[in-house]
Amino acid sequence: MTFDPEVQTTLERQSIEVPSWAYGNSGTRFKVFAQPGVPRDPFEKIADAAQVHAHTGLAPSVALHIPWDEVDDFAKLAEHANSLGIELGTINSNTFQDDEYRLGSIANADPAIRQRAVDHHLRCIDIMDETGSNDLKIWLADGTNYPGQDDMRARQERVAEGLTEIYNRLGSHQRLVLEYKFFEPAFYHMDIPDWGTSYAHCVALGDRAAVCLDTGHHAPGTNIEFIVAQLLRLGRLGSFDFNSRFYADDDLIVGAADPFQLFRIMHEVNVGGGFAPDAGVVFMLDQCHNVEQKIPGQIRSVLNVQEMTARALLVDADALAAAQRAGDVLGANEILMDAFYTDVRGSLAEWREERGLPSDPMSAYEASGYQSEIERTRQGGQQAGWGV
Ligand code: PSV
Ligand code: MN
């Protein structure tokens, strides 16, 4: 099957941002596993991220997490990325690791801790100015564990105040992207638990604030594609953090647990105009590869996103609209399922070959010798990982 020109254009434009932290060691609260060849610094993380793009043509940018990716010279890090054919993307703030944040960051009852958290974000914006990044992504670990522990409503006011100070420091070309999560690390309530709360803060902040939807951050059974449709409708879908989950925030390979859900999400992105260049939706991965190799794990992930995008683009929009208008329940469902069941792997392999990319990026990476080279040469030093 050859994709029609409109589908080709969308596939051509598709870019998926990879997270720098996917290349470091990771694990669960039980164990962080070390793997051979893991980067010792952000420069090596960028080199690994560049491999994903080199083999797939899909991942031209890498998101950083501060302070995990602190370096003395961010302009040099950006140059390093450019020299390897990629760019630095979203800057993720981190107010969940310091002891001071035990009771929260910008929602904390202590004004000195709130200021510390705001200052961290201002530092992140300084970094964005150096790297040329457009987006500051904020995920707050703030919340409480016990009813009565703190005043939930007062905490919302503090969050609004802190976000406003951060937002006001952004340059006119920069955006604040606010991520939500319904539980963890706090278990009674989170201060930004859902898309509605994130949306309410974004609207209050201004046009350059938008919601980040992490696919692992919802209660089981949540209709995520409905949220996608709604946020696109409201013009506030800023970005995705793609991953997949069986139980909680598993951070598994996107599309691995439920490819059909990924297809449904991509279908709503398409219907809502989210693939248009001016839609402002950043498609990012937020994953950890605890037991599998990291670079191939990332290659598999971007291919999964591409595959479900291609299938979603095959939905016969006219036929679907006609069936929906006619109230043809089974017909409409069949049109959608026809696209989902279409195997696009052969067509995508051809599409890659036509562009000078390997038809099978997974085996091309294995054959490239990069993995054995990093395992041989990255000796000594401190491997990157959670908290490092
Ligand atoms: C929180 O669970 C989260 O999804 C946020 O995006 C963080 O920045 C990221 O994970 C850290 O891995
Ligand atoms: Mn996330």
Can you tell me about this structure?
By secondary structure, this protein is of the alpha/beta class. The protein has a single domain, classed as TIM Barrel (Alpha-Beta Barrel), CATH 3.20.20. 45% of the residues lie in helices and 13% in strands. The chain contains 14 helices and twelve strands. The chain has helices spanning 5-13, 42-56, 74-83, 111-131, 152-169, 195-205, 224-233, 259-271, 294-313, 317-325, 329-340, 345-354, 361-368, 370-377, and strands at 16-19, 26-27, 32-33, 61-65, 87-92, 135-139, 143-144, 175-179, 189-190, 209-214, 237-242, 282-285. The strands form three sheets. It has an eight-stranded parallel β-barrel with strand order 1-4-5-6-8-10-11-12, surrounded by six helices. Strands 2-3 form a two-stranded antiparallel sheet. A two-stranded antiparallel sheet has the order 7-9. Helix 3 (74-83) links the parallel strand 4 and strand 5. Helix 4 (111-131) runs parallel beside helix 5 and helix 8 (259-271) packs across helix 9 (294-313). The termini are far apart. Alpha-D-psicofuranose binds next to loops.
What's this entry about, in short?
It contains 14 helices and 12 strands. With about 400 residues, it is α/β, with parallel strands linked by helices.
